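Section 5: illustrative case.
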């Protein structure tokens, strides 16, 4: 069976939604842009040989509608129209799922070269909505009657639920959020993120090369002053991820094709896993996904050198650490979404770019990426560094 290897991963900077550096760009053009830069960085790959573009998008509506993966192929200056495009939506794990689908297609022998991308432009996906509101929800999944799950619960309320169930204090959440800010700021200043970011022109043509999010002036004292954001549970804007814009792309191929082209892949995909739990506690679903993916590989958490866990909320990160035995020093060693931001469909591919960067920079062998997903889901992927 062919093995799926990751050759490269790049991303745009992450902009703050509505008022940030990327707010006026189009998501479809931005996906095409980052895909073209990925191919530009890997000249050994003939763009015409790319079998399919899988693009994760959490909310494929408005400017992100019309199968944005195929639209990006047609907008690309490097891909040909023979490359097909498929949009994948698993909310926050959409582009991690895109990587998973590409890897599985390679293992199944369906093709040798794929691109897994991810995008979310919160600033713009609602400009022309394809409305989905309470009137469109299934009444049996609104949690209005005893025993009914609330599949449509707002994410902030799930964080409050998790904080209360696991007894996570405001001090713990703020301390974790401050750590994320400090690590992200230090990594930005050291040039760590420059190795994964491809600068993108803003709406006036000025290059943007830095994430908007990291806050050098953040302190525990300032975080402690913020009001609770979701009606209790100590969850605030400061210990939650913000709303953002961004795109990322990952080049994946079979090990045989990489050898044929003389390409040195960064890592191979060892295994992936998904898990479902109560929608009201979606933030801790990665616990099940992590346990399942470790079981599939015969590993324990001690075998993992570095973990990238999406920081949707500090309230959910802390219980996952505790339940899975993840040492703090192995987790999100260059900051996470609380500081960097979380463009939903982009984040899975963004985290993979950061994980590979960290494994190479800090000399790690085994890496784990994991994320929670709206509706009560978790996803996890183990990778092994090759070069």
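Designed sequence:
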């Amino acid at each position: 069976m062919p093995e799926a290897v990751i050759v490269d991963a790049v991303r745009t900077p992450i902009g703050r939604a509505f008022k940030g550096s990327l707010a006026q760009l189009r998501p479809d053009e931005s996906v095409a842009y980052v895909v073209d830069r990925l191919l530009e960085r890997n000249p050994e790959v003939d763009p015409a040989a790319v079998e399919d573009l899988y693009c994760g998008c959490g909310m494929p509506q408005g400017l992100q509608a019309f199968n944005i993966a195929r639209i990006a192929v047609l907008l690309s200056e490097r891909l040909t129209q023979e490359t097909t495009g498929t949009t994948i939506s698993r909310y926050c794990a959409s582009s991690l799922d895109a990587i998973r689908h590409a890897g599985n297609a390679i293992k199944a022998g369906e093709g040798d070269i794929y691109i897994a991308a991810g995008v979310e432009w919160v600033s713009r996906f609602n400009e022309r909505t394809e409305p989905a509101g309470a009137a469109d929800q299934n009444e049996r999944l609104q949690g209005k009657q005893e025993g009914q799950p609330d599949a449509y619960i707002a994410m902030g309320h799930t964080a409050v639920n998790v904080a209360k169930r696991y007894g996570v204090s405001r001090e713990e959440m703020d301390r974790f959020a401050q750590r994320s800010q400090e690590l992200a700021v230090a990594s930005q200043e050291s040039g760590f993120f420059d190795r994964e970011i491809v600068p993108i022109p803003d709406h006036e043509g000025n290059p943007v090369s830095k994430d908007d999010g990291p806050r050098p002036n953040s302190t525990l004292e300032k975080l402690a002053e913020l009001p609770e954001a979701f009606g209790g549970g100590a969850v605030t804007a400061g210990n939650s991820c913000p709303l953002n814009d961004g795109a990322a792309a990952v080049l994946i191929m079979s090990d045989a094709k990489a050898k044929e082209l003389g390409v040195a892949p960064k890592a191979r995909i060892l295994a992936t896993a998904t898990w479902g739990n109560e929608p009201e506690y979606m933030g801790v679903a990665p616990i099940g996904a992590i346990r399942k993916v470790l079981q599939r590989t015969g590993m324990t958490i001690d075998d993992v050198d570095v973990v990238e866990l999406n920081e949707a909320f500090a309230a959910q990160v802390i219980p996952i650490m505790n339940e899975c035995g993840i040492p703090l020093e192995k987790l999100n060693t260059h900051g996470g979404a609380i500081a960097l931001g979380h463009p939903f469909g982009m984040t899975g591919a963004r985290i993979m770019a950061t994980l590979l960067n960290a494994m190479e920079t800090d000399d790690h062998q085994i890496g784990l990426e994991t994320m929670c997903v709206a509706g009560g889901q978790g996803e996890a992927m183990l990778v092994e560094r090759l070069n």
